[in-house]
Amino acid sequence: ETDGCVFPGRIMLANTCTWGYRSDECGYTGPAVADEFDNPTADPAKDACSRCARGCALRNNTGNFGGFLSINKLSQ
């Protein structure tokens, strides 16, 4: 039951960001920070996003995280 709530017209994932890394939605334009497993790196060739909130936190970009961190609380 949603009680008239309106949800975004996209898949709502709790712990996975749906934005493309360094896209307009992501907004991150800084230097290489971490690889796809959130291991530190300064190598631009290894720079990748883990698609998790931790990846955004490492880049000080949590405001643009493309997931819905509290969505899993709806089913509880």
UniProtKB/TrEMBL annotation:
One GO molecular-function entry: iron-sulfur cluster binding
Domain of life: Bacteria
A single cellular component GO annotation: host cell cytoplasm
Phylogenetic classification of the source organism: Bacteria, Pseudomonadati, Pseudomonadota, Gammaproteobacteria, Enterobacterales
Protein name: Phage minor tail protein L
GO biological process: symbiont entry into host cell
InterPro entries for the chain: Phage_lambda_L
Native organism: Salmonella enterica subsp. houtenae serovar Houten
TM helices/strands, residue ranges: none
Pfam families documented for this protein: Phage_tail_L
